[in-house]
């Protein structure tokens, strides 16, 4: 079974879950062609991301000439080309990206379709319901193999009409949500007759990487928060909650792990509240560095306003750490209040501070028991090998039920 993964920007520091999925599928014998539109502009600190970048073909690196030549070859099948062009223009009308951008997607799709033909790809799978899913859909309409895609949220749920999410779902062999909440959202835009094609496949963790979690540390309370420094991740609320908390827990420490466009704003807020001794901004860390920070922490805090199914929560639970998180999206499918952590309303710095105080006042033995309960829960529900096996089964069914249409060979490589 040969699958093409159609991706937008890959790999990225915040998308290690895609890398784990690919590698878990390959360990189960699935042959994968990695086709990304562009490489990441961020520095790749993790050796695993660096290795993935070396294995990935980048469509836009082919250059305008190769893309136009690929598009021109598709005009030899005028009926299919006309259908694909009509669909690209339909997507453009719904979107705020404009016609030119969607004609570029069509050219990308032509090259993706031809690479799939040359490599004997039987099915395409995209991550996110954004332009990568559009390229896969257009490649299929041009005569390429069938496609599926994984929707994570929250971006897709914020703009379903601009992304033509219903169109993508209804044309796909199947569509994956990473949580039951996500599946419920997809049901809003899928045709009723396509509901059976909506599948839940969780993002997975690799249990071997968390085989021997460190015991909870002694000493002053330490927290970790992991994520891009963007508005939806809610770090600003957490910094303001910290300003309240240090009045009662002066030696409280928070490691903010990540980076992004909001860094300067966070630094200014930390300075405004004189929290420089209580909060450390670590920047992006490789996976080993993230695990080391979790080992030093008593708990993970996730103050997000919007999420899909947060990998950072899974990893903290696998590391036997209690979690303080916001009651949003798929997070309640992970965190069980009073058993594995605390859930609070998003955007409520008072409630967040109170939950951290509850954590601080919880006896050490009880914190450890909550961490172990979370570990057992996530290892049972989110083992990457098990989730990859589910996805592979969906691929096999899609291939056997709808074999790819024949298409012309193309140049051997991008």
Shape: elongated
Please give the count of helices.
16
| Distance between the ends | 22 Å
The CATH homologous superfamily of the largest domain is named Glycogen Phosphorylase B
Number of strands: 13
Average pLDDT across residues? 94
Low-confidence stretches: 403-413
* CATH architecture type of the largest domain: 3-Layer(aba) Sandwich
The domain count comes to 2
Outline the biggest β-sheet. Answer: 7 strands, parallel
How much helix, percentage-wise, in residues?
A: 40-55%
CATH topology of the largest domain: Rossmann fold
CATH class of the largest domain: Alpha Beta
Secondary-structure content class: alpha/beta
Radius of gyration: 22 Å
Describe the strand arrangement of the main beta sheet, using strand numbers.
3-2-1-4-5-6-7
Secondary-structure element string: EHEHEHHHEHEHHEHEEHEHEHEHEEHHH
User: Which range does the strand content fall in?
Assistant: 5-15%
How would you explain this protein's 3D organization?
It is built from 16 helices and 13 strands. With 414 residues, it is of the alpha/beta class. It has two domains: 2-204 and 383-401, Glycogen Phosphorylase B (Rossmann fold); 208-381, Glycogen Phosphorylase B (Rossmann fold, 3-Layer(aba) Sandwich), CATH 3.40.50. α4 crosses α5. The longest helix has 22 residues, at 98-119. Mean pLDDT is 94; it is low at 403-413. Its EC number is 2.4.-.-. InterPro entries: Glycosyltransferase_grp1. It comes from Leisingera aquaemixtae.
């Amino acid at each position: 079974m040969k699958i093409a993964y159609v991706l937008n920007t890959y790999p990225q520091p915040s998308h290690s879950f895609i890398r784990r999925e690919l590698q878990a599928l390959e360990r189960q014998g699935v042959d994968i062609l990695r086709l990304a539109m562009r490489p990441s502009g961020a520095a790749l600190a993790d050796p695993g991301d660096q290795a993935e970048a070396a294995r990935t073909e980048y469509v836009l690196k082919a250059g305008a000439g190769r893309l136009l030549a690929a598009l021109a070859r598709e005009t030899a099948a005028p009926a299919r080309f006309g259908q694909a062009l009509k669909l690209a223009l339909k997507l453009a009308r719904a979107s705020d990206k404009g016609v030119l951008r969607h004609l570029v997607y069509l050219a990308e799709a032509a090259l993706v379709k031809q690479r799939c033909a040359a490599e004997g790809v039987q099915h395409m799978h995209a991550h996110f319901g954004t332009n990568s899913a559009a390229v896969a859909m257009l490649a299929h309409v041009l005569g390429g193999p069938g496609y599926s895609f994984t929707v994570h949220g929250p971006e897709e749920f914020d703009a379903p009409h601009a992304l033509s999410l219903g169109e993508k779902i209804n044309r796909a062999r199947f569509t994956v949500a990473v949580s039951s909440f996500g599946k419920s959202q997809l049901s809003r835009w899928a045709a009723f007759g396509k509901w059976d094609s909506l599948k839940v496949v969780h993002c997975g963790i690799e249990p071997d990487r968390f085989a021997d979690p460190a015991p909870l540390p002694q000493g002053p309370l330490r927290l970790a928060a992991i994520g891009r420094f963007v508005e939806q991740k809610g770090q600003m609320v957490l910094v303001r909650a910290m300003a309240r908390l240090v009045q009662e827990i002066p030696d409280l420490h928070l490691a903010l792990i990540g980076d992004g466009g909001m860094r300067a704003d966070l630094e200014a807020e930390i300075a405004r509240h004189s929290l420089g001794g209580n909060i450390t901004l670590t920047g992006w860390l490789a996976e080993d560095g993230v695990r080391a920070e979790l080992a030093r922490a008593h708990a993970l805090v996730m103050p997000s306003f919007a999420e899909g199914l947060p990998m950072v929560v899974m990893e903290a639970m696998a590391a036997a750490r209690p979690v303080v998180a916001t009651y949003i999206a798929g997070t309640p499918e992970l965190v069980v209040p009073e058993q594995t952590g605390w859930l609070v309303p998003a955007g409520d710095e008072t409630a967040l501070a109170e939950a951290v105080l509850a954590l601080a006042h919880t006896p050490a033995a009880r914190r450890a028991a909550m961490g172990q309960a979370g570990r057992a829960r996530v290892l049972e529900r989110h083992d990457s090998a098990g989730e990859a096996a589910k996805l592979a089964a969906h691929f096999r069914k899609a291939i056997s039920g709808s074999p790819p249409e024949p298409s012309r060979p193309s140049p051997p490589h991008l």
